[in-house]
Amino acid sequence: MPEFSSLPTIITLLIALSVASERVVEMIKGLFWRQLNERQEDPGREARRRVWLHVLGALAGVGVSALAWPVVVEVVPGDTSWLTVVALGLLASGGSGFWNTILTYVLNIKELKKTDVEQARGAAGAARPLPQPTDGVLSPGH
Amino acid sequence: MTAPPLAVLRDTGRNRWANWHENFEQRLHKLYDVWNAEPNRSTLAGYNGTTRRLQQLLQEALDTGRSVRALGGGWSFTPVAATDGILLNTRPLNYRFPIAGDQVHPGFRGTGPLFFVQCGMSIAELNTYLASKNLALPTSGASNGQTIAGALSTGTHGAALTVGSIPEYVVALHVITGPGRSVWLERQSYPAVADALAGYVQADLVRDDELFDAAVVAFGSMGIIHGVVLEVTPLFRLNAWRKRVPLDDALWGRIERNDYAGNTLPGAGGRMPHHLQFVINPFDQGGGAFCTVMYREATCPAGSKPAEPFAKVAQGDGALELIGLLTDVAGDLTDDLAKLLTKLGYKEYDNRCGTPGQIFKDTTTRGHAASAAMGVPLDRAREATALAVRAVQQAKAPALVALRFVKASPATLAFTRYAPVTCVLEVDGPESARVRQAYRAAWNALDAAGIPYTFHWGKLNNLDRTSVRFANRYGSAVQHWMDARARLLPTPELRRLFANAFTDHLDLSD
């Protein structure tokens, strides 16, 4: 179960995987499958082109995640398996732009939480060390 | 006579405040940290200087039509202590004065030593302080971050079968009721300190059972509780066990009769439980409920192991928050995540032993948590528990249902009001839509079944001024409490000064 604090690390991993899988897709498109680079006039063919791009992106994501296995086991908390690789690959195929945006949101939320915590803790008196007064005597003159 | 050194009010510059469990945020006019003029030395002059400065602030608030509330530890799940006016962080106010033998009232009927402590002392601080003198608080809540005045004002309880809640060992209050007056309040039937002491803190001495019982649980609406006198007890140890046990007919029979003679609870060995709690995971009842039982001992029994924290995951943990988010999105995860919640927070153990301060450790984590607690008579506890469990199951809420048993309190608005022992039925989980849905379902089910119940003042509830849940449960006690408040705060302006949205909502402000 990832703690909220580990989410930025996981998202950063996803960004790296996304960038790498995008490069892989670009290479495949440029070297072996040039039609995928060209927008199609026919709506049906264009839809098929998009589907293939998604499939290619997902496969590239899974492949890159598998190659990054040593990093994945370090970053993803808990038990990891081949399902983790598939899941990360599919998530990475969302694109680095998408994950960059998510990372920004998460970091902003983290910052807000930090501010809230500091504010509430300040209000609870923890911002300054609390005094440790000596015992008093409950009588006049003391 | 020289004027006492005035307390320092430090304007925090903040105009919003969030409670410890982060389930609400309050906008406000000012938030002040209050510091004694001589914070490192408890002195009567310093104490009186703080009273005087707070009274000046009350005058300023009256002049500008703002309300004033003392914050306490910010532990409550409801805005019971909050105000949109002036909020005072009294946490740094932690003077302590042992009451000398010749300062005890000759008619004092108690046995424990007395201590006069300032409102900001936390339960954790008191545990440490008293343990250093081989003394202890008779009971506290399961966590220790509350201030003594805050815990008192909301009727905070633990699970002490024979002791009750925090108000039971507070024997005198020093309440600042306005710019020109403060009151030293004790029960007529249980006088605590010599008359002269009220004069020392420049307060009017009032011994009145009805007034005391009303003021002791008043959630800050009867003035600023500046100091309290605690009747403490010689330091004791709690020999603690936590095991899964079946909540079967035999055990329910004992609970309903409040009869634990010859019980077979974990580790009993012929002993009567001091602290008793059951936690039920509504999604995993096969192995029974987690029974936490503690036996009071003067010293740790031979062979016992050092104390471990009461719960490893407390309300407020980040894990709770994440569980809430996940189950809101995917309800099917609830079953597994509720199991995870119990796995994280409720590990079985046996034969642990420690002082109360060692058992009820610091709760330092926080997050969006939710907690509701209802006081239920023992003879309806089984039925109420079944309804709460069903509500959680139907809502697929990642929440646990807990039962604690607390001796009934004589405080007028104590929610632990069902004698001889009130069953406190708690539903705790992350702050999430499913958990809220479970609360609503549980409350509706209790209403439909005609089960009488009250709400913990510091926890989530759906009380309002027209609610039968409020008026019918407390009956004439509400009017007695209002009458007492009017006696302590004789003008509408003073009553307004210490009112807030919570008291407005319940029609208790005037």
Describe the structure.
Chain A is mostly helical. Chain A has a domain at 4-94. Helix content of chain A is 68%, strand content 0%. Chain A has helices spanning 7-31, 43-67, 69-75, 82-92, 96-123. In chain A, helix 1 runs antiparallel to helix 5 (96-123) and helix 2 packs across helix 4. The longest helix of chain A is centred in the last third of the chain and has 28 residues, at 96-123. Chain A is elongated, with a radius of gyration of 26 Å. Chain A starts with 6 loop residues before the first helix and ends in a 19-residue tail after the last helix. Chain B has 510 residues and is of the alpha+beta class. Chain B is 29% helix and 24% strand. Chain B has helices at 44-64, 123-131, 148-153, 196-200, 209-216, 249-257, 318-329, 334-345, 356-359, 381-395, 433-448, 468-474, 476-488, 492-497, 501-505, and strands at 8-11, 16-18, 25-27, 30-35, 68-70, 86-89, 96-98, 114-118, 135-136, 170-178, 181-186, 204-207, 224-231, 233-234, 237-245, 275-280, 289-297, 305-306, 349-354, 369-377, 400-407, 421-430, 454-455. In chain B, the strands form 5 sheets. Chain B has a 9-stranded mixed sheet. In chain B, strands 7-8-13-10-11-12 form a 6-stranded mixed sheet. In chain B, helix 7 packs antiparallel against helix 8. The longest helix of chain B is centred in the N-terminal third of the chain and has 21 residues, at 44-64. Chain B is globular and about 70 Å long. The interface between A and B is large, with 27 and 50 residues.
